[in-house]
Amino acid sequence: MAILRSTLWLSLSDGIVLIASAVVSILIARYLGADALGEYSIAITLGTIVQMIADAGYSIGLARKVAAMPEAIISIVSAAIGTKITLWLIALPGAITTALLQSVPTSLLTAIVLCDVGASCVTFSILGALRGIGNFVMPQLLSSAYQILATVAMGALLVYTSTLPLVLGAMVAIGFLRAVHLHQLFRKQTGRSIPLATVARHISLRAIAHELGAHWRLWVINIASMAIHRLPLVILGLRSSSTEVGYFSAAFRIYSAARIVPGALFTVSVPEMATLSARPKIARKILVVGAGLSFVLAGMMWISAPWVITATFQFDASIFPLRIMALAFGGLSLKTTLEAILIGRMHDSVVAWIVSIVAFLTIFATWIVPASAVWYSFVLAGSEWLLCILFWWFGVHRHLFSS
Question: Quick one: DSSP state of residue 371?
Fold first, then answer.
């Protein structure tokens, strides 16, 4: 019940944030059209890619590491922030160059989004550390409140100015305020601050090599997962028009909103599997919850696709892609649950290999299928179910779900 309760709280928090964020995308679609939505989506996606590269695997490993060594929380979180900032700086030129290949307006939007990613390096490090000591709900609610404030400000500016750079500038400003407030919460709950001098010592290539050497597999998992879910949109932009990207983005935005539920289960399950004895009984409970969520939400997405698209983005061309993504969601939810169990049981290397292979196949497929929202949705569905099948096979082979 504790796992399910925390999952529901995190899902509710993230769900509200994603709904608010989706409103911004909907307003862009209605006020500025599919072309502008495509440029905005590419900028956000490139920012997400940089964030995944900068994450260095900490989104998975930080909570687990702190749970195992809570007395070293300051050292752990300082190393995480320093490593993330260094990787963020390294990844900036590649993201800006890729955006320039799309268009000059896209590159400007991407540069602004990347400033917000820099603030997120601090924000998500603190959130991960607090989760490691069992503080799931309050820090996440605070972070979500700031994200909601950002989306409200962005929506208002969009309606009154229709200027995307200004809209994203508001997001950056509030993102930095969120990082400062979360550090204050960290100090209140742990009784200690995060010294800037300690963080600065980790902003170096030598520190990166040391940190990645400790959990490079988790970093590979994050990057490969990002390639599966984010790179197709960027490749679609390179092969097709911003309008086609807009159609795909509309469906993917709704799909992403539903992804927060299995994502919350993953967040709760990994520390749980790491700190308890990780008996097969626990794994089976997590698997049952994940399977139930998978089929219920996938069915709801399939049935409601026409109504949801009509009520939001109003792109008829996005209805069929969303239904294909509903099929993808069934595999995604089961895959996420299985992945949490495998990582919680320290099978990081196997997960890294499987996700990397599927990422390679996904990228290959996006370059050979027709460049359309429908075909790219089929690629996404195939990738999710292939991951699910491979994770399940390994779990059964290693008797992770049976006594």
Answer: S
Indicate if the pLDDT at residue 338 is higher than 60.
Answer: yes
User: Could you report the per-residue pLDDT of 20-75, keeping only the tens digit for each?
Assistant: 777 888 888 888 888 888 889 899 989 988 988 888 777 767 877 887 788 888 88
Beta carbons within 10 angstroms of residue 399's beta carbon: 9
The CA distance from 352 to 146, in Å, is: 33
9-14 contacts at long range (C-beta below 8 A, 24 or more positions apart): 9/136, 9/137, 9/140, 10/136, 10/137, 10/140, 10/260, 10/264, 10/267, 10/268, 11/260, 11/261, 11/264, 11/265, 13/137, 13/140, 13/141, 13/144, 14/140, 14/144, 14/260, 14/263, 14/264
- In this predicted model, which residue has the larger pLDDT, 178 or 128? 178
Neighbours of 101 (CB within 10 A): 11
Please state the separation of Cα 141 from the chain's center in Å: 17
Under a CB-based contact definition with an 8 Å cutoff, are residues 26 and 89 in contact?
A: no
Q: Report residue 380 CA to chain centroid gap.
A: 15
SS in 3 state form for 260-320? HHHHHHHHHHHHHHHHCCCCHHHHHHHHHHHHHHHHHHHHHHHHHHHHHHHHCCCCHHHHH
Angle, CA 183 vertex, CA 180 and CA 185 arms, to 5°: 115
Residue among 9, 26, 253 nearest 143 (CA): 9
- Selection from 67, 108, 375, 36 nearest residue 236 by Cα: 375
In this prediction, residue 265 carries a pLDDT of 55
pLDDT in tens, 73-131: 888 888 889 889 999 999 999 999 999 988 888 899 999 999 999 999 999 899 888 88
Closest to 388 in 3D by CA, of 258, 322, 254, 290? 290
How many CB atoms lie under 10 A from the CB of residue 268?
26
Instruction: Write the single-letter amino acid at 364.
Output: F
Distance CA 190, CA 243 (A): 48
Given a contact cutoff of 8 angstroms between Cβ atoms, the answer to whether 305 and 326 are in contact is yes
Q: Where are the domains of the chain?
A: 2-397
Residue 388 pLDDT more than 60? yes
